[in-house]
Amino acid sequence: MATSLKNLSSTNLKVGKAAKKFSIGLVVADWNPEITHSMRDAAIDFLKAQGLKATQITCVPVPGTFELPLAAQWMAEQKKIDAVIAIGCVIQGETRHFDFICSACAQGITEVGLKTNKPIIFGVLTTDNLKQAKERAGGKHGNKGIEAADTALKMLLLKDSSALK
């Protein structure tokens, strides 16, 4: 498990002037709000620290993780949105429901990114228990909301770079 090795939430990313041209959307599952809202807040704080203004960040709630791909697609279809961060948390229970939700969400988010040609970031925790989720939403493993926001900006910088032109 990679996160057992280090806290990945620290970054040396400096977006600089490029931040002025990016608009980021967040779709955030309201299921497990103690976790997802912590990740949402950390992602927004990180984006603002990188130079984005509040007007460049659009955040919408969805009922649960299963609904993230469709909401991400609706958001990505908006011309003004350059990237979408999907934030959710699925905690293993006693049934296979966990497997179906995780699989559908991951596949759906992948498809949205390929369909819209925009970065759609998988900021979804898939943990065995609440303790693991808390450790990844501001605990000893950092906050995966920061990592998702960092990834969104890095993908936009890559798309904007001469490396792909």
Topology readout:
Blueprint: E1 24-29, H1 33-49, E2 57-62, H2 68-76, E3 83-91, H3 97-116, E4 120-127, H4 130-135, E5 137-139, E6 142-143, H5 144-160
Parallel strand pairs: 1-2, 1-3, 3-4
Antiparallel strand pairs: 5-6
Overall description:
This protein is of the alpha/beta class. The chain has one domain (31-156): Rossmann fold, CATH 3.40.50. Helix content is 42%, strand content 21%. The chain is built from 5 helices and 6 strands; from the N terminus they run βαβαβαβαββα. It has helices spanning 33-49, 68-76, 97-116, 130-135, 144-160; strands at 24-29, 57-62, 83-91, 120-127, 137-139, 142-143. The strands form 2 sheets. It has a 4-stranded parallel beta sheet, with helices on both faces. A two-stranded antiparallel sheet has the order 5-6. Strand 3 (83-91), helix 3 and strand 4 (120-127) form a beta-alpha-beta unit. Helix 2 (68-76) runs parallel beside helix 3. The longest helix has 20 residues, at 97-116. The chain is globular, with a radius of gyration of 15 Å. The chain starts with 23 loop residues before the first strand and ends in a 5-residue tail after the last helix.
